[in-house]
Amino acid sequence: MNNFLFLISTIDKQLKPDIMDRLKDSETIKKISKTVETTCNIDNELFKTFNVKRGLRNEDHTGVVVGLTKVGDVVGYERDAEGNLTPIPGRLIYRGISLEDIVKGAQKEDRLGFEEVVYLILSGNLPSKVELKEFSGVISRTMDLNPKIVMHILDLVGKDIMNYLSRCVLELYTFDENPDDTTPENLIKQSINLIATFPTIVAYAHNAIRHGQGKSLHIRHPQPDVSLAENFLYMMKGRHYTPLDVKILDLAMMVHADHGGGNNSTFTVRVTSSTGTDTYSTIAAGIGSLKGPLHGGANLKVIDMIQTIKSEVKDWTSVEEIDNYLCKILNKEAYDRTGLIYGIGHAIYTISDPRTVLLKEMARDLAIEKGREAEYNFYTLLEERAIFNFMETKGKNVNKQVCANVDFYSGFVYDMIGLPQEIYTPLFAMARIVGWTAHRIEELNFKQKRIIRPAYKNAADVREYIPIDKR
Question: Is-catalytic flag, 407?
Fold first, then answer.
């Protein structure tokens, strides 16, 4: 019977052409695609004419305030009594507490900190030693997946782990006895389950894709009473990791756990949550948002750019060589000719990105352990010269101080740990699921619930309907 079903499945796949192949030679598709170039184009000047905040951005590049939150805050400016903005060193705040203080507190006691951050962001309070130990155990014991989901992951076809993650999250709905229950207790259960299982889904999806490429299949079950960061490395690599690998991955998870309510994926989660839909649909929407190259996929662009710079700059210690190539990038004469230095600049942070400061500090220790000090020194010099050349070339036009953002070092750190590039954006999701679930709970906890419904100004000319025989 099984052989018969396999045969039917094989024949079915051979008979059904790819859906996009059926459309690729359509003249109708080509004609409509051509018209879109004009019918879907809006003149940038119209945004000024109608005073529309494109991208929910003010003229000074700050975000338009559209909501209130107690979960997290991102600070890059101080505003005086007259409303003028003064750049300050960046601060990332979780539940009123500085991320830097949280990280330094854990490091001082020589312990990991991600589970503490999860507890803080979800509950709003720091855990006691007893609470943290119990909570960490709950997470590690929840990391195992339903065998049916494991088999589904192994059966999926594709190369993008973010899509695997999204599909598995939606599938988790079917295994939840109360998937649409939005009581606080059920929301916390769902949140912890998602936080705990994301690393397992990502690791298994990666191993399934490798197996599809002809490599050995490794399905390692998460270990009880082991940190989420270490469990992820174990499921990805077996025992081939060091204590420092675990510490810096734990740190990377801490700094990516939340970034206020204004980042695109978190806002997506809040928008969908405001409709009253289920947790799994909401988080799948957040994953789709994070997947975008302008959001979670940005670190891949940084890696690709820096690899190109490494090949073009012969002397990694030469300021003159580095400056010359960076100026070519800024003048749209090199790399992808967009004029952008990826990893430099942030929508809110100006003088510094606190996440970058923390990652860069530990990246130095990791580089020493891995014998990659020369590469680390190149990164730090490149960061310095990129900021200098940007300010010299474009600083006056943007009227804003810039700094290296977290994407500048995160890819380098993951590479030193030995993680492949296709894991980088899913790693972001593994951390940000913490903030997503906390913001969702907050959105659903408003006493007066209101769907988020922004307005769009129609910029089309009024036209008369033409009968079909006169067109």
Answer: yes
